Amino acid sequence: MTKHEVNFDFYQLVFSSGNNSSVINCFNKIIKNEVEAFVDVKDYTRELYRLSFNETDKYWAGQFRKYRKNQLPAFARPGEDEIELTLDGDQGIIERNCFIFFPIRNILIWQHDAHANNPERLADFLSILSADKVEVAPILTKSALLRLMDGKTEALKFKISVARPTAPSMYDENKFTADLFSLMNNSGSDLFNLVGGVDLRSKESGVLGRFVKSGIRTLVSSGAAKTAKVLVLENGKREWLDLITDRVKASRELESGKKSIPFLTMVDMIKSVYDEKLEVLNEILGKEQDTLI
Description:
This protein is of the alpha+beta class. Helix content is 27%, strand content 36%. The chain is built from 7 helices and 14 strands. The strands form 3 sheets. Strands 1, 2, 3, 4, 7, 8, 9 and 14 form an 8-stranded antiparallel beta sheet that branches. A 4-stranded antiparallel beta sheet has the order 11-10-12-13. It has a two-stranded antiparallel sheet with strand order 5-6. A hairpin with a 2-residue loop joins strand 12 (225-234) and strand 13.
């Protein structure tokens, strides 16, 4: 028996159009074979495979597959010369992630596999097929962000790593983020590592403005911030808040006689972690979400 440890992350999709009807239409066209289910994204062919809609629980489920045609693995027994794996020209090694997407609540539950795809590639894929700019944003628990945005909590320093988004206009409402992405665009940078704050050694040092706190919250909530730590003054005590680790996530362990977990078993696991985290999700998103369809 092989023991598998599987991790799951929770996201929401962000649409430039403001709703997910374009992606749902895209899903429907795929299952009706009206459009191809594979496109080239970031140097790899990627495919939505075994896509289906569960009428009872109202979610889409599927595999997001990457086809690797270069640097293929070799195999051998200990002490033997390796044998190169050979494939036909239109074949590739499959690296997959399974997922469930609840369109009404706009919740994407993603099987984490560092060797396969990250959810940003799914967003790129959907952007191409739907002609609607799509991005993914992690669902965050309330504790750290609420502490940061509390009016009694003062921000003193910050350390953030920010990737330039593909749709920076989504961040124009906040001066901090708008100016940041304008600077990134003008400099041609794809990644900024920023450190800022007040001089804590000075008796006349103040605190960071609320618009900075709001901007950092936007970067973290949208997924643009890859790392984000803020030194805060709360109830007279200084403490670093790590905003990125405060994400909704879950894990499962499974023993199986197979080397990989069957797709339907994986879907059942994903649904079970959704049920497990439902109370937390209700606290964050509310029990009733207006439909985005």
